[in-house]
């Protein structure tokens, strides 16, 4: 089964019942669960964990039976650093690599597709990364 990295914004949309994005994110996750092996990494876990007080609550919200957890490969960390360097050369003001760089690089190095509703940065820094985003068609129709 093909793997699909889930961006934290999609998970947070569902967890917070975001008025604008809940319907798209919930539907996309439901469809993806039937077609893909869902994956997150420690960066996504950290971003989602901010809304919880206890680690047990985060673990319950991201059940291992539904979402696999993977470490970030060193090759992905290297790629994230290179994307950050490009970002800085283009005038970016952040002083350390953005979480999107680690998420996108992990998906790119592992050969995964990425589900996100904020595709602009991923398209800029990972042009060959296959995205599932609100304006993107689902694979196979």
Account of the 3D structure:
This protein has a five-stranded parallel sheet with strand order 3-2-1-4-5, sandwiched between helices. The mean pLDDT is 94. It has 141 residues and is α/β, with parallel strands linked by helices. Helix 1 packs parallel to helix 3. The protein is globular. It has a single domain (3-132), classed as Rossmann fold, CATH 3.40.50.1010. It is 51% helix and 11% strand.
- What structural category arises from helix and sheet content? alpha/beta
Q: How would you state the average pLDDT, rounded? A: 94
Order of helical and strand elements: EHHEHHEHHEHE
Largest sheet, in brief, is: 5 strands, parallel
The gross shape turns out to be globular
List low-confidence stretches. Answer: none
State the total count of DSSP E strands.
Answer: 5
Task: Please supply descriptive tags for the structure shown above.
141 residues; alpha/beta
Give a quick rundown of the structure.
The protein is 51% helix and 11% strand. The protein has helices at residues 8-16, 22-35, 42-49, 55-61, 74-89, 99-110, 120-125; strands spanning 3-6, 37-40, 67-69, 113-115, 131-132.
What's the helix and strand layout?
Elements: E1 3-6, H1 8-16, H2 22-35, E2 37-40, H3 42-49, H4 55-61, E3 67-69, H5 74-89, H6 99-110, E4 113-115, H7 120-125, E5 131-132
Parallel strand pairs: 1-2, 1-4, 2-3, 4-5
């Amino acid at each position: 089964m093909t793997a699909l990295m889930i961006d934290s914004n999609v998970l947070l949309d569902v967890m917070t019942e975001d008025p604008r994005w809940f319907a798209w994110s919930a539907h996309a996750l439901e469809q993806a669960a039937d077609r893909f092996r869902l994956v997150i990494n420690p960066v996504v876990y950290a971003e989602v964990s901010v809304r919880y007080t206890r680690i047990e609550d985060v673990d319950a919200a991201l059940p291992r039976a539904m979402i696999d957890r993977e470490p970030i490969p060193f090759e992905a960390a290297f790629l994230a650093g290179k994307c950050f360097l490009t970002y800085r050369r283009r005038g970016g003001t952040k002083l350390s690599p953005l979480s999107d760089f680690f998420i996108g690089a992990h998906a790119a190095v592992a050969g995964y597709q990425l589900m996100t509703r904020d595709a602009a940065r991923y398209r800029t820094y990972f042009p060959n990364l296959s995205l599932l985003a609100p304006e993107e068609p689902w694979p196979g129709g």
